[in-house]
Amino acid sequence: MSFNLAHPVYEHGRNHGSRLAVSVGGNDLSYAELSALAQRTARWLTAGPSRPPGFVGVLASRSVEAYAGVLGACWAGDAYVPLNPQLPEQRLAQLLRIIQPVALVVDEAGRKALSGCALEACPPRILSGFHELPPCDPQDRPRAVDAEHTAYMIFTSGSTGVPKGVLVPTRAVCHLVKMLQELYSFRPEDRFSKAYNLSFDGSVHDMFTAWHAGASLHPVPASQLMAPMKFIQERQLTVWTSVPSTAVFLEQLKMLQPGAFPSLRYSIFSGEPLPLRSALAWRRAAPNSEVDNICGHTECCVFSTLERLSDPPNVTSNRGLVAIGKPLPGFEAAVFDQACACLPPGKEGELALAGPQVAKGYFQDPERTAARFPVINGKTWYRTGDLVCQDESGTYHHLGRIDSQVKILGHRVELGEIEAHLSQICDSDSVAAVAWPVDHGSARGIVAFHCSEARSPQEIRDAMLQRVPRYAVPTRVLRLSTMPLTTNGKVDRAALIQVLERP
């Protein structure tokens, strides 16, 4: 078995070269063209003195250069590290100093991002145009790599302010792709969306699952991410994957018209809780599609549990959220207490996962790796930090984040619970709650945000008084015209804090 992630593209390029591989920014590349570009990029990366495998930074997004950089790094036997061109200069410089990449592949947006201290932190070798590439060599094949070879590293936020680099081996991606192919029976005629940014691990599924099946990849332009109706219709997409916020936003604006997306076969939502109301609206808009809620973690190679929207739907009690389901093939799941002992069904605890998709750990951080990836009876588990419970049927339900728990007057409050009530009261999924103000780690209150016109702040507080203890009722309720979102489509809590900090 070949563990090089570029190998399927190489094979499709040889055997089905005329098939469409990727359509982005007005450029349509066949498998033969994409394979040749990846091979030429790999030859550029390995030119010069012999060196051991290293990290290749890909400072690009939604461009031919982005996919050439990813596949070229894989082909060369290196590991790719996606970097968002929209990162602040100091943040980008910080990451480059941590990575110490052997080379950097950039597109136009990436070139513009390289200034000041970020440019100073760059490696000597920067690929900024395909004119620099050597010619194609038909005899050149993707390098042989083993199962534990690092395929990529993706950074997540760290509680200390230093980003955490998650090291994901090739075995994890290969298992993900094979497992999803068996589960969904993807075919060459499928047309995959790519709504996730390259630096969001959902992009791993988008790219490598599509290319493994010989299907085509269609990155969604940034301007259409939250309103992709026209894009889905014009491209006749058959596989849609995104964060639930997309469905929430469209449902809120009443843009999910019944039958709007007849071409979709599968709709996969991951990255945050999926509200039932939005899931049902999406299903009406995509009547020929299965709607799947998949729980995923960067440390477990994208996807780990699945709940298919059924009739009647399997809903987490009192939250209005679709359950996160059962472990995907190859995974083991458990509910841990603080001592990493397994809890029985019905008990709340931390979701832990084991299996071939579990990452190798955090880059240059053995202490954190040991804490989050404990080895128990010879088996490595990943402690997710998600608060869950398992019902008697074996289905898991997401109850919030362990680290989102706050204390108010000595009482523990889960912000996820507050948001679930707000969503029902406001009849909207565009809600958020933040602890504010926070003094010495203890919150003095909660501030609620919503985008609904149906209720006044006092009506919302009165309704909350009927649902939660008084200390958990938001002290302030603020209405926003739109909910701020991160580049990955999640609620931007940092932006909400900035709203509160304004004089």
In short:
The chain has 503 residues and is an alpha/beta fold. Helix content is 30%, strand content 26%.
Keywords:
503 residues, alpha/beta, Rossmann fold, GMP Synthetase, Chain A, domain 3, five-stranded mixed sheet, four-stranded parallel sheet, 26% strand
Tell me about this structure.
The chain has 3 domains: 7-145, Rossmann fold (3-Layer(aba) Sandwich), CATH 3.40.50; 182-400, Rossmann fold (3-Layer(aba) Sandwich), CATH 3.40.50.12780; 409-501, GMP Synthetase, Chain A, domain 3. With 503 residues, the protein is an alpha/beta fold. Helix 2 packs across helix 3 (64-76) and helix 7 crosses helix 8 (202-213). The relative contact order is 0.08.
In CATH, the architecture of the largest domain is: 3-Layer(aba) Sandwich
By helix and strand content, what is the structural category?
A: alpha/beta
Relative helix content: 25-40%
Strand content: 25-35%
CATH C-level category of the largest domain: Alpha Beta
Work out the count of structural domains.
Answer: 3
C-alpha-based Rg, rounded: 23 Å
Helical stretch count?
15
Let me know the CATH homologous superfamily of the largest domain. ANL, N-terminal domain
Task: Tell me, rounded to a whole number, the average pLDDT.
Answer: 92
Shape: globular
Strand tally, please?
Answer: 31
- How far apart lie the N and C ends? 61 Å
CATH topology of the largest domain: Rossmann fold
For the largest beta-sheet, the strand count, sense and barrel status come to: 5 strands, mixed
Taking pLDDT < 50 over at least 5 consecutive residues as the criterion, the unreliable ranges are: none
Query: Can you list the strand order of the major beta sheet?
Result: 11-12-13-14-17
